[in-house]
Amino acid sequence: MAPKIGYLLPTREQIMEGRPEAAPLLALAERAEDLGYDSVWVGDSLLARPRHEPITLLAGVAGRTKSVELGTAVLLPTLRNPVLLAHQVATLDQISEGRVILGVGIASDVPNIRAEFESAGVPFEKRVGRMLEQLRLCRALWSGEPVNWDGRWKVTDGTLGPTPHRKGGPPIWGGGSVPAALKRAGRYFEGWFPTGPDAARWSEQLTEVQGHARDAGRDPADVTPAIYLTLAIDDDAAKADARIDEFLQQYYGQRPGLLKKRQACFGGSAAGALEWLKGYVDAGAQHLVLRFAGDHERNLEIMAKLRGSLGG
Questions:
Q1: CATH architecture observed for domain 4-74+88-117+170-309
Q2: Nearest alpha-carbon partner for 11 in 32, 27, 29, 25
Q3: Environment class of residue 6 by beta-carbon count within 10 Å: exposed (0-12), middle (13-18) or buried (19+)?
Q4: Which end of the chain, N or C, is surrounded by fewer C-beta atoms within 10 Å?
């Protein structure tokens, strides 16, 4: 089976460049659908890496598209009240008629993200347990049955409406590639969605995720293997690699060499990109989400032409 191909909208880049208008982003989403992409994705941050709010923007994308899946790459649930989050996601899933994929993560431990959590009134150290409880509460509310919850949040005989279009709610994909993230993905989520590493190591980690799924009494096939990848395509490999470095430095404010150890990146020709992507497909990846380091229109078209050669 051929892999699905997704496209990350450049919300962060638009803000960094002083172009906050949403219309160009919606146009890119439409273009991706027209070119045959399977999904469109939006990242998340409040203050650490300013960008458009993902659920709101994806509602706009849902109204302008018909078939692409709509994903968060990745949402930080801990920055949100879970009852409100459940309501927003259910409404988005209704607007899109069941096209939502909820990618979630816990965020990196760096100073500006710690400050972001503080600004939202959320304890950074408790974010893992907090997220897991939030998602359990969301799923309970998505059932449409009255919910009584006595945990970090208190819900008394609460019934959510509307419930998601997709019965039980959208699939939840967990990000991360550290051992604890692999375990969470296998035990609790419908997909595993890291930003790295290389295809060989990703394959080894996929085996770990599948093992955790079996240990939890789940069918490993119920966990979608996905990967978030960053590309700069140019026949001049040195130029493409320099573009990746500049992109990462501006995007994160950290040294590119350090980031490349945690995030899978490729800079080079279209033929080289195809070979690189095939490494993940051959290793079992079923959904590739692509983030382009600039020149989005051109890269969208290049990858649309290449995707038929990815096989499956």
A1: Alpha-Beta Barrel (3.20)
A2: 25
A3: buried
A4: N
